[in-house]
Specification:
single chain; alpha/beta; 7-stranded parallel sheet; 8 helices; 7 strands; 45% helix; 14% strand; binds nicotinamide-adenine-dinucleotide
């Protein structure tokens, strides 16, 4: 296992939910963390609770904004070793009711965002790049990026794209001897982040008649219960330190997809 202590990470979508827990867990293990998100006020509050953390406002769908985020990492920490592409959005809807606008919104944030984060991560960490010492890129996909589920078709399209983008980037970096590993993580439903509103979202989308039914359905799908943000954060730390892991998909679902 590679030591994480002393490394530098950029975590997107870190103003709350899973991103803030991932950033805090990396910091616990001695990583210097740059938190990024659209929501600057929330970002500032979260950063103030994490030792040594810095933050910068960042739109993952915008290439100029990526350039600024990378510059912030270099200015604050003088390097970059880990990029966690965590920012994402989900809209629950049957495909027959999903507007093209909402479909494209999910592709933009989840897939374009992960693409730009992967691209800028490679450019920055590869030999000759601004940081130049290799590193790792971790793309937070979803179990919905591996299997389909009712009401999440647009989200699955985006997260499935993230899964194969990850594999392509992994093999490209390996062949080019960049010293950069690229992996994806696939959580099922996690309490925290938009997992907190999943029951009401399912009702609003007309998928179930009430929240109790939504809860019963999700509990039955997850034999070990829903996940916690810490479960995903632990996974990120493992992947960041697993030096022979590349192009892999870490499924975190308490066995949900094993049935
Ligand atoms: N919570 C779950 O159950 C769950 C399950 C599987 C996968 N995920 C994935 O985990 C990641 C984090 O999700 P979460 O549950 O913490 O959601 P969340 O909504 O709490 O956090 C997402 C963050 O992304 C930020 N964001 C949105 N658009 C952005 C943009 N254009 N640029 C920068 N930041 C932007 C938001 O401001 C927010 O802080 C997402 O990629 C999500 O798809 C979540």
């Amino acid at each position: 296992m590679e030591k994480l202590s002393g490394k530098t990470a950029l975590v997107t979508g870190a103003a709350g939910g899973l991103g803030s827990t991932i950033a805090a867990e990396l910091a616990q293990r001695g990583v210097k963390v740059l938190l990024t998100d659209l929501q600057e006020e929330r970002l500032e509050k979260v950063a103030s609770t994490i030792e040594g953390a810095r933050f910068v406002q960042h739109d993952v769908t915008n290439e100029v904004s990526w350039q600024h985020a990378i510059e912030a990492a270099m200015q604050n920490f003088g390097g970059l070793d880990i990029v966690v592409n965590n920012a994402g959005v989900a809209v629950f809807s049957l495909l027959e009711n999903l507007s093209l606008e909402k479909f494209q919104f999910m592709q933009r944030v989840c897939l374009d965002g992960a693409f730009l984060g992967t691209k800028w991560g490679i450019q920055t960490m590869r030999p000759g790049g601004l940081a130049g010492k290799g590193g790792c890129i971790i793309n937070i996909s979803s179990l919905a990026g591996i299997v389909g589920s009712v009401g999440l078709g647009g989200y699955s399209a985006a997260k499935g794209g993230v899964r194969l983008l990850t594999k392509a980037a992994a093999i490209e970096c390996a062949h080019l001897r960049h010293g950069i590993r690229v992996n994806s993580i696939h959580p099922a439903v996690v309490k925290g982040g938009f997992g907190d509103t999943v029951f009401s979202d399912m009702v609003k989308a007309g998928l179930v008649p009430d929240e109790a039914t939504a809860e019963a359905a999700l509990n039955s799908f997850h034999p070990m219960g829903l996940g916690e943000p810490e479960d995903v954060a632990d996974g990120v730390c493992y992947v960041a330190s697993a030096k022979w892991m590349n192009g892999a998909e870490l499924v975190l679902d308490g066995g949900a997809s094993a049935q």
